[in-house]
Amino acid sequence: MEFSVLSLPGDGIGVEVAGEAIRVLNHVCRKFNHKANITEGLLGGIAIHTTGGPFPAETERLCLEADATLMGAVGLPEFDNWPPEKRPERGLLGIRKTMGVYANLRPVRSYPALLDSSPLKNHLVDGVDMIIVRELTGGIYYGTPRGITGEGAASRGTNTMTYSWAEIDRVTRMSFELARNRRRKVTSVDKSNVLETSQLWRRVAVEVAKDYPDVELNHLLVDNCAMQLVLNPKQFDIVVMENMFGDILSDEGAVLAGSIGMLPSASIGARKPNGFWVGLYEPVHGSAPDIAGQNKANPLGAIGSVAAMLEYSFGLKEEAAAVNSAVEAVLNSGQVTADLRPKGTPATTTQVGEAVCEAIG
Ligand code: NAD
What range defines the domain where residue 13 resides? Predict the structure, then answer.
């Protein structure tokens, strides 16, 4: 297979982890006889320095052209006091909007070698393997009217949570499709005992489920889901929810795995004529200015994002599994970065990337 990938390393450790992710992508392609044509673009602080804005027109063009996009992270301390619309992070909103990626997928799984890094007891975390699917472009973060009116003690803040049938349909449908390749279980999370948007959410989920009789659907209220994620996280396979619930619960899910440096994510949009999804892949973490430029960052979240890209944007499941198994082998070998608290000298970012390639074979 031949495909094009846009790499947007961004700022800080983004550059270091994206470098290792691309190393692994190239290695997988060599091993499995694929050709990845990789282009590099500017996003975030580096783009502000070079072009004056965080999401230049050239990057916009490149991400629309590429078959998939891999991002490192954005954010530089020197821009911390800039207004939000000029900061590097605005580049993230720009690219998500341009690519129309409406579902954020965060795989959360436990690794035997990292069980002690989890805040939960080993027996609760061992065997966790779920994907949290968060609706990404609707709901209360985008609804209008919004704003603060009035002054002082008389002021009032307003946000609006709104969802259309179509917005719920596409993200729940994607969840059922994902479940078909896994344990065939979808948990739809809502607050239908209080919110009308959630009543509609549940109604649509039930309708969509009729097209997937081979997949089990159950519903959980969001407050109960928050509790179940720590009481019995192994019960979940695919968990789908609206934007704000997903923002909160995906961070709760993130800590199950141990270190933030471990976590990949995939933001998925429309299905292309070839059957694969438009995708933007990035580790969950930020640019980590405290360790940037020191070859200390854990690249496994970025490398896991490559595995997600291979699976969702290119349908290369065997190749994705090879990357995930190699990550697990490297964790078991103990050759890991400082955030995973290795017994001996911590490995560098580069050494971990090389070790993953070696484990792929
Ligand atoms: P952060 O994720 O960059 O760092 C939080 C802590 O985790 C730091 O101590 C850092 O050293 C550590 N850490 C993060 N990733 C790591 C890795 N791969 N390996 C080892 N340790 C790792 O969050 P922050 O400090 O709140 O934000 C720093 C900058 O990143 C800010 O400008 C913020 O806006 C930006 N940010 C960007 C994204 C993104 O690009 N998607 C996400 C979050 C934050």
Answer: 1-109+259-361
**Cα-to-centroid distance, 285 and ligand 1 (Å):** 5
Q: Are residues 130 and 230 in the same domain?
A: yes
- Concatenated DSSP letters for 301-337? HHHHHHHHHHHHTT--HHHHHHHHHHHHHHHHHT---
Same domain for 91 and 137, yes or no, is: no
Q: Which of 47-51, 144-148, 228-232, 252-256 has the lowest mean pLDDT?
A: 252-256
Q: How many A from CA of 151 to the centre of ligand 1? A: 36
Q: Work out the pLDDT band at 101, boundaries 50, 70, 90.
A: very high
Nearest Cα residue to atom 34 of ligand 1: 75
Q: Is the pLDDT of residue 19 over 90?
A: yes
Assess whether pLDDT exceeds 80 at residue 258.
no
195/83: higher pLDDT: 195
Residue 358 CA, distance from chain mean position: 25
Q: What percent of the chain has pLDDT over 90?
A: 83
| Count: domains in the chain | 2
Residue 114 lies in a domain: no
302, 319: one domain: yes
> What's the one-letter identity of residue 227?
M
Q: Give residue 282's identity as a one-letter amino acid code.
A: E
Question: Residue 133 is encoded by which pair of tokens?
Answer: 């699917």
Average pLDDT value for residue range 269-293: 90
Give, rounded to a whole angstrom, the gap between the first and last alpha carbons of the chain. 20
Distance 300 CA to ligand 1 centre (A): 14
Taking the CA of residue 299 as reference, the ligand 1 atom at the shortest distance is 18
Same domain, 30 and 77: yes
Give dist(CA 361, CA 355) in Å, integer: 10
The Cα 240–Cα 105 span in angstroms is 9
What is the CATH number for 232? 3.40.718.10
Alpha helices in the chain (DSSP H): 13-32, 45-51, 57-65, 90-99, 122-125, 165-180, 196-209, 222-231, 243-256, 300-312, 317-333, 349-360
The tokens of 334 are what? 């103990």
Q: Which residue's CA lies nearest to atom 26 of ligand 1?
A: 286
